[in-house]
Amino acid sequence: MAYKFLTRPLTVRNTTFPNRVVFPPVQTNYASETGEATDRLIRFHETIARNNVGLSIVGATGISPHSRLGPQSLCLYDDRHIAPARRLFDAIRKAGSVPAVQLNHGGRVMSPELAGGTVVGPSALASPAAGIVPHALSLEEVEQIIGQFVHAAEAAKTAGAAMVEFHGAHSFLLNQFMSPASNTRNDKYGGSTENRARIVREILERTRPRVGNDFVLGLRMSVDEYVDGGLTVEESRKMVNLFIESGLDIIHVSGGGIDTGPRMIQEAAEGNIVKLAGEIKKFVNIPVIAVGGILRLEQAESALKDGLADMVALARALIADPKLVTKSLDGKPETVLECTGCLQCFMEGERPGMTCSVNENL
Ligand SMILES: Cc1cc2nc3c(=O)[nH]c(=O)nc-3n(C[C@H](O)[C@H](O)[C@H](O)COP(=O)(O)O)c2cc1C
Ligand code: SF4
């Protein structure tokens, strides 16, 4: 099969993605306990990057000491994180992919240990999944978190990334602010669509002058949260257009999150999250990344051909077989080691860090 759509380069600002395949953010817990990139994390990304993946987005990375999701998540809040991150981004670039990193604060779904004792959120409303009533952030604290996102983006650029993706999906803090189900504030960060979008707009607007005009600013967003009273595609379209006004360059469409439970995986498996990307693409004029349940390269090609997205991300398929794209482009798709959907990669194993039942080399 000829992958005419997938193999076309795409240029955003001054960055050219050599093709349309994305390795999306995956929390590996391969960093050190203090948040530095390790040889294991570098080897993992390098192997994927070397195999014809145009954009590699490193998984949810902490922006402050109490924002990270796992005990060995990558962090970018201290000067000591920059040199190891530079080794990571350099390795991805030398392997032929564009290096990017996702920046995140977990907010109300975090464990109290990782949150430093106080779990925070936009409002004092417990997440259905985590069940802890968070401390509702004061205006000063919101301001501080905006500054931490901007600082981490600047650190990513200093370390050699070409792009950051702010994590506004999967029930984490920025998603919590955007969502009417978790944000009942009555100040400028709550209420109307414009107010719930404000924190992300301020992060985008304050980041741009710190990173220059060539740097790519992305956002991942759960455009349908699949929860009662949560974000719908209709409201998300309006929000994405507000983000574009504030300088957003690329939107990575996801759906659901921690609060959705197993339904998120089910929706991905049924291809419904890829369809959500198409629903956003019709209404925006920036590149759209689609993701969810894609196991074979021909499915990714079809999503582009059908006009659902501009780039396509494969997470579990590339964890299971990092050479999937190379093998498919070489006309040997039958040699791909296919992800079985067992979800072992989501579980904590005996050894710290992500493992896969198909890929023995992790
Ligand atoms: C082990 C694991 C860790 C993940 N970590 C993140 C993350 O850090 N940030 C994020 O936005 N999504 C994360 N995801 C979600 C993936 O990026 C992707 O959206 C999801 O797995 C659906 O795509 P797939 O069907 O191709 O796997 C993770 C997924 C897996 C399997
Ligand atoms: S652990 Fe299972 S679900 Fe995860 S990538 Fe490997 S085969 Fe797929």
UniProtKB/TrEMBL annotation:
Domain NADH:flavin oxidoreductase/NADH oxidase N-terminal: 8-328
Protein name: NADH:flavin oxidoreductase
Keywords: Flavoprotein, Oxidoreductase
Cross-referenced CDD domains: OYE_like_FMN_family
Top-level taxon of origin: Bacteria
Organism (species): Candidatus Abyssobacteria bacterium SURF_17
A GO term, aspect molecular function: FMN binding
